[in-house]
């Protein structure tokens, strides 16, 4: 389960970077909303999966609430999930 979460964290981070640094500029600079629609949907699904898996692991791995909270909050800014993957999931 931790390996699945690790992969999800990395892919969710990549989707956030693509959304913020590729799709949104394409929409607002070049007036092309196509990429925001598709990358945004993928990012939304991955973000939800990340939070659900974090919650499952919170109970399964008996994480303390502080660790769980940091892991969940780190999914909001770009590059946050890469920090989590390195700090908390490196040895998985």
UniProtKB/TrEMBL annotation:
Residue span(s) of domain DUF3817: 2-89
Main location (coarse class): membrane
Keywords annotated in UniProt: Cell membrane, Membrane, Transmembrane, Transmembrane helix
Transmembrane segments: 7-26, 38-59
Pfam families: DUF3817
Subcellular location: Cell membrane
Top-level division of the source organism's lineage: Bacteria
UniProt topology in membrane: Multi-pass membrane protein
A GO CC term attached to the entry: plasma membrane
Alphabetized NCBIfam families for the sequence: integ_memb_HG
UniProt xrefs under PANTHER family: MEMBRANE PROTEIN (PTHR40077:SF2), MEMBRANE PROTEIN-RELATED (PTHR40077)
Protein name: Integral membrane protein
């Amino acid at each position: 389960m931790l390996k699945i979460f690790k992969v999800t964290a990395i892919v969710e981070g990549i989707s956030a970077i693509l959304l913020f640094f590729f799709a949104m500029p394409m929409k607002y600079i070049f007036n092309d909303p196509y990429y925001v629609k598709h990358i945004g949907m993928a990012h939304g699904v991955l973000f939800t999966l990340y939070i659900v898996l974090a919650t499952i692991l919170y109970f399964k791995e008996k994480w303390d609430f502080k660790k769980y909270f940091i892991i969940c909050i780190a999914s909001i800014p770009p590059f946050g999930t890469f920090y989590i993957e390195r700090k908390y999931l490196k040895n998985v």
